[in-house]
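# nightly structure sweep
# worker-07 picked up a monomer target from the shared queue
# config: single-sequence mode, recycle default, output format = structure tokens
# input follows
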Amino acid sequence: MTGARAAFIDRDGTVNELTPDPETGRPESPLSADGVVLIPGAAAALRKLAEAGWLLVGVSNQPAAAKGTASREQLAEVQARVLELLELQGARFDDFRICHHHPHGVVPELTGECECRKPAPGMLLAAARELGIYLPRSWMIGDTDSDVLAGRAAGCRTALIAHHPSSHKRGGPEPADAVVSDLGAAVATLLLRERVN
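# output follows
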């Protein structure tokens, strides 16, 4: 077995809280920086993983740019705010991948099928190639069925966070290797299983 162990980590609903979508009212990704609030314990969980020697790679679908509901500049501000709040608590990602595409968007250059939008594994595979990650020893952690499917397609183990506000994005038949309550529980689970194996 060669290569680094990595935790691929979804952002919204895993690291930061979801906010009401302005059109549907459903909990979705924040569209402005002032809506960013970290989920309690998320930064501490990231610190614990980093201290255990894991690479932390963020992987997030951000289709609001394709849908025309937020600009890429606004979404960049949201991302910067997430990273800023994490840094204030001593946590950071080693790498972060974002997909702005959506198959039914209204912005032509961002509309259509792609290899990076989860459940496709493109973001994970690209990071693995560039960072020397050994996927069979790595995990994908997120709160939606798309996260689980992307992790499985990439050859990772998977942890599904049963975050109540994102329950409308779960319910598929594909089981995760672990179902947990939050990022802290996911980290505890993967560290335990790593010791056992």
